[in-house]
Specification:
alpha/beta, Nucleotidyltransferase, domain 5, 42% helix, 16% strand
């Protein structure tokens, strides 16, 4: 009897998620693509609650790419992941890795809790701010950008994506950079959906809708799994 009940509960959860997807109202997302001048006080990026802030970075060199997400020392949400070799060989892999990092941080964050994401990639932030998956990003970058924008629209709490000056004295950015480099070299693989490589066809559309449903299946105050696709 337990098995049929589990199936019914799962089906009900999917129906609720689909209903939420259809009726969701986009929340305002604040995106700042220009960092303050170098030499600013580092506390500029730590003035809000540390519980809601994270730093992200992407890395690509020598045909390898990866990304890092940093919340705080010892935080289980920190990430250091590698991207598939075909991403590392793609022109603009560094920007694709940065968008991957932003997507990962947003997707795994609790939907109904405020979130501040800091990135040093003006192109990644400009892409997400424009509301269009820019053609400047080769596949799978454009699809990842669209997926990130889709998830941002479903968030139920205040969200900000802000620029941080690269190679300035901001500890969180330094750590995210180190995590990204380590991820590119030896991190666990971040599986990019195969459909994201097709240049924006119907498969990409379905893959993004699937991600939206997975995102909405979680409770609003629940952190995401260590695996995006779980």
């Amino acid at each position: 009897m337990a098995r049929p009940l589990q199936i019914l509960r799962r089906a009900a959860a999917y129906l609720r998620a689909l209903a939420a997807l259809v009726t969701s109202r986009p929340r305002r997302v604040e995106i700042t693509e220009r960092a303050p001048r170098k030499g600013y006080p580092p506390k500029l990026y730590t003035s809000k609650s540390r519980a809601r802030a994270c730093f992200v970075d992407g890395s690509a060199r020598g045909g390898r790419a990866g990304f890092g997400v940093y919340h705080a020392d010892g935080d289980a949400r920190n990430r250091s992941l590698a991207l598939p070799p075909r991403v590392g060989a793609t022109p603009g892999a560094n920007n694709i890795a940065e968008i991957c990092a932003i997507f990962d941080a947003v997707f795994r964050a609790a939907r109904d809790k405020p979130l501040d994401v800091y990135s040093d990639s003006a192109l990644a932030l400009r892409t997400l701010k424009s509301g269009a998956a820019t053609t400047a990003l080769a596949p799978p970058g454009a699809a990842l950008a669209r997926a990130c924008m889709a998830i941002l629209r479903l968030r139920g709490a205040e969200t900000s994506l802000s620029a941080v000056a690269a190679h300035a004295d901001v500890a969180g950015n330094h750590v995210a950079d180190a995590l990204a480099q380590a991820g590119a070299e030896r991190g666990e693989l971040f599986a990019v959906p195969e459909a994201f490589y097709d240049g924006g066809g119907l498969g990409t559309w379905f893959a993004i809708r699937h991600l939206e449903v997975l995102y909405l299946l979680r409770a609003g105050d629940e952190e995401g799994s260590s695996s995006i696709w779980a």
